[in-house]
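cron nightly-structures :: item 1 of 1
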Amino acid sequence: MTAAINRRTMLRLMLLAFFAWMPLGCGGGGDSEAGGGIGGTGLYASSVGTVTEFGSVVVNGVTYETRDARVIVENDPKGTGDEAVTQNLAVGMVVRVEGRLNDDGSGRAEQVFFSAELQGPVESIKTLDSRTKQVVILGQPVIIDDRTFFRNTAMSAISKGMVLEVSGYVDENDAILATCVGKIADSLPPGGPVKIKGEVQDLDTGAKTFKIGSLTIDYAGATRLPPAGLEPGQFLEVRGRLQTPDLLAADRLDLAEDIGSGAFDTIDLEGIVGQISSPAEFRVGRRIIRTDQATYWANLLPEDLTPGTRVIIRGALLDGAILAREIRVFEEVKIRSNVSAVILDENRLVLTGFEGVQVAATADTRIQGRAQSLEGIQTGDQLKVFGRTSPDKTVLASKVLVLPSTDNAEITGPVESVSRPNIVILGVGINTASIPAGGFRGRGGGPVTADEFFASLRPGDTVAAEGVLQAGVPVWDGAEIQ
């Protein structure tokens, strides 16, 4: 296990030499207010991701100071500064921040853009499980679950006909994983505005129609079109009015940007992995992501990358693709061990050495590898579980990779308490006394002594502990503060 940590450390040190300034700790697009950089001494950055907290604005783990930032919502300037940010944005919204990065890894936002994925009436609602629902808006399936933030409504209050604004990410099945849902109205008035983003399909320039998913767009009366006209495959923002549930009369069509059009030194992009050609080339949203030997795989390995994985990419634009310098799974909890029990009637997994941790699958859990469903998982299979914790401390699996049985054991998550040599993660006591010299890693991945490790460790820090199973009990041989 220490060899795996050492490998990651070498990659990280290579990256630090290349990007010494970068600790990686309802968006972007469709805006006619293109960025261009308005001064500053730091590297010019574009960051597309969910707002995770305020106090300035935090996106992709970077805290951006917003005192002088312009806020643009749906192409409409809303003001400048902290008040404009808090009045017009919300936690969970996917935004694009353009600004400068400071030497300490924080940033100074120059512009913050928000543009919803969808706005329209709910056509249908389907309960998938106790934590997950699917709604259909303008023909587009939208997944809402425990990760979705709500404004002016709640999951239980959403009803057919309600007009919602949806921010989120398109997944590998062309559904939208909603990160923020806001109620606009109880119903759509006659001629009320709607909006959809998507790729131009079935373009008929004679009839002046095309499709986004199952929705037909009639653009004969549109007053704004892309300067070079329409082409199949273009990604557009369409605003207009519903004529029938399946027909939208467009008022305007805008090219939808994702990362912006500035000359950025670095790009952060959060999204969901779609098509994978190889670990060296895959798609996140509309962007091709490329990796090379210098790419640092922060809290996953190349073989862990599968369709449906929610990731944060940091890199630079090269020939239209993003060359990744760091790849990180969005959610910070990971458990690896062999299966001791599968409890199908509770959608629950029990892992050897972590029997006290409740691991649950939801309707939106990706199960991949040797099995594609809970029913296919066998006792003794090795699992890698990536997920998040619920308020009742259950680990909700976003992804489960099913592998052949091994003696590997790993747990990653926020530290609950520290009493040297013991730390507690997800209720599991980690006795670090068995970790040899050289097995401790600090922030940034460099080797530290046990004294240095515990001197810097605080409750709330994310720690990854690795070891091997001996008689069903993990014996730890490495720990890293992430």
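cron nightly-structures :: done
The radius of gyration is 23 Å.
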